User: Which sequence fits this backbone?
């Protein structure tokens, strides 16, 4: 790992250490970033620096833009998600610049964090696949416990649609899903 990559990852972790929300007794964004990095290392062991940075910075300072400050409903949720993506990209861009990354690398990380090019850009798609794996591995069961079977099915189908075909196949190999949920990953 290069010195500048270490510097950016440490800066993201430092920012995320300030998250007042806790998960397993640790700052939520910090734990999420660590999970993203671990899953990326498992799924894409030769990931370039920009993908490693985007994965770790996926939720950098997420708590700073409260969902409650956006309107209720789907339109408000999507506006909040877009604002989060822009915020994450801006924070990560600044950290990368401070560490000596060039404009091209900074722009690539920004595209990944804003999810510009899913299904068209291999790095953006790789990040999205990692995001989906992290959701399925760490956050799906708690989500499913709080929602109706119809809502769970809808979220699983949306998750599968975002993933690449190889990632969907890998989900079927790695997760023991009920038949109705597994069907979303067979297409």
Assistant:
């Amino acid at each position: 790992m290069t010195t500048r990559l270490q510097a950016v990852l440490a800066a993201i972790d430092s920012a995320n250490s300030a998250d007042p929300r806790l998960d397993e007794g640790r700052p939520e964004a910090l734990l999420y970033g660590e999970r993203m990095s671990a899953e990326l290392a498992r799924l894409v062991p030769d990931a370039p620096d920009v993908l490693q940075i985007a994965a770790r910075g996926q939720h950098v300072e997420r708590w700073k833009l409260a969902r409650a400050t956006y309107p209720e409903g789907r339109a408000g949720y999507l506006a909040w998600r877009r604002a989060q993506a822009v915020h994450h990209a801006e924070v990560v861009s600044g950290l990368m610049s401070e560490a000596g990354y060039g404009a091209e690398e900074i722009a690539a990380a920004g595209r990944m964090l804003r999810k510009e090019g899913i299904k068209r850009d291999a790095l953006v798609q790789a990040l999205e696949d990692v995001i989906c794996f992290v959701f399925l591995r760490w956050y799906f069961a708690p989500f499913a416990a709080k929602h109706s079977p119809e809502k769970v099915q809808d979220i699983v189908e949306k998750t599968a649609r975002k993933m690449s075909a190889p990632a969907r196949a890998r989900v079927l190999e790695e997760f023991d899903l009920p038949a109705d949920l597994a069907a979303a990953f067979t297409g």
About this structure: Residues 73-99 form the longest helix (27 residues). The longest strand covers residues 22-23.
